[in-house]
Each structure stands twice: as structure tokens, then as C-alpha cells.
Design goal:
InterPro entries: BART_dom, BART_sf
Strand content: 15-25%
Structural class: alpha+beta
Helix content: 40-55%
Order of helices and strands: EEEEEHHHHHHH
Protein name: BART domain-containing protein
Subcellular location: Cell projection, Cilium; Cytoplasm
Number of helices: 7
Organism: Prymnesium parvum (Toxic golden alga)
Keywords: Cell projection, Cilium, Cytoplasm
């Protein structure tokens, strides 16, 4: 048996069948719930006389459980950035971004994104967005029992998954990304 990483291509949603190539053979697997474009999951492939075949796909919720287990183990290490990653997952910070965008997207309807004309009326909304997420970060600092300076120091040394989570968290607060997410949501696209 061989474990094969399968990436979710654009346009394929959870529950849908996707095809992938393995050793020259075209195989298929169902995208697990909770995954989106660019994410990956592992399937077991066996090679038999008739060629390779998928023998095991992730069970529903297995991918999320594996990620949560990994994050929990890392957080138990005591590292501040490991705790940050666990906190981001536990508090479902992505849902907080999405909720703000959904609640306020109509205020920027038809804005044309970053390439379009910018309105000074958007600035207070962006400031409210930033304040909400600065509040979330403050909540983490209190829970972790650390200062902003300690967090910044730990963040500067972040690597691997910790660095990825940190970059995603910080990128969400950039004005250009904010305008793009609001533009997509206000035009009915995914935010």
C-alpha cells in the first residue's frame, strides 16, 4: 500500500469525485467534507495485477480530526506560536472573518475591488474590521498570558506551519485583501 497526497483542484467541492494520476493510471477519490481548493488529503493506493486502485479514502471528519490532533499536540509543547495555531483553530478565526465580511459586504456593493475606484467611506468600515481582529489577538494574548512584545518576538522566529498560520492571520487585516474579500462577497462570490 502507498499513501498518496491528493490536491483538491479548482471547481471541485467536498463530496464530489475527483480524478488524479498515479503511476500512469487514472484513479478517483471523493473530496472529504471541510476541504476546499488547494487543500490536500491522503488516500491509500494498492497496486495489484490489474494496476493501482484506491483502497481507502478518509472517513468523514477524519481530515479535520487529524489536523486538530496535530495542532493540539503542538500546543501542548508549550511554544507560544504553537499555542497561537491551536487558538486560531479552536476559536475558528476564519469564521469570524467570514462573518464580518458577510455582515458588511452590502456596504461596499459594486466597489470593483482594489483595481476599482476607492471610497473614503470604506475607511471607517476597514477600521472596525481591524479593531475586531485586534480584539481577537488581545484575547489570545490574555489566554496565553503573554505581552505583545513576547508575541512579536515569538512571531519573528515562527517557521513551518506556525509561520503559515501567522501570515494568513496577518494578511487578513491588510486593506487590499479586505477590499477584495468585500468585493467578492458583495458581488455574490465566495469571500
Amino acid at each position: 500500500m502507498v499513501l498518496v497526497d491528493v490536491a483538491v483542484p479548482a471547481g471541485v467541492r467536498p463530496g464530489e469525485l475527483l480524478e488524479f494520476e498515479f503511476n500512469g493510471a487514472l484513479l478517483s477519490a471523493t473530496v472529504p467534507e471541510g476541504l476546499s481548493e488547494g487543500a490536500s488529503f491522503v488516500v491509500e493506493v494498492a497496486t495489484a495485477a490489474g494496476g493501482p486502485e484506491v483502497v481507502r479514502e478518509p472517513a468523514p471528519g477524519e481530515v479535520e480530526q487529524q489536523l486538530q490532533h496535530y495542532v493540539d499536540e503542538r500546543a501542548a509543547s508549550g511554544g507560544l506560536m504553537d499555542k497561537f495555531v491551536a487558538w486560531v483553530e479552536r476559536e475558528n478565526i476564519e469564521a469570524a472573518y467570514e462573518a464580518f465580511i458577510a455582515a458588511h459586504a452590502a456596504e461596499m456593493r459594486g466597489n470593483g475591488g482594489v483595481a476599482g475606484e476607492q471610497s473614503h467611506e470604506w475607511w471607517p468600515l476597514y477600521q472596525a474590521y481591524q479593531e475586531e481582529f485586534e480584539g481577537l489577538l488581545q484575547k489570545f494574548l490574555v489566554e496565553a498570558g503573554c505581552t505583545e512584545e513576547e508575541f512579536v518576538e515569538a512571531a519573528q522566529g515562527a517557521s513551518g506551519m506556525n509561520e503559515i498560520y501567522l501570515r494568513i492571520f496577518l494578511a487578513q487585516t491588510e486593506y487590499e485583501l479586505f477590499v477584495e474579500m468585500m468585493s467578492q462577497a458583495s458581488s455574490g462570490g465566495s469571500g
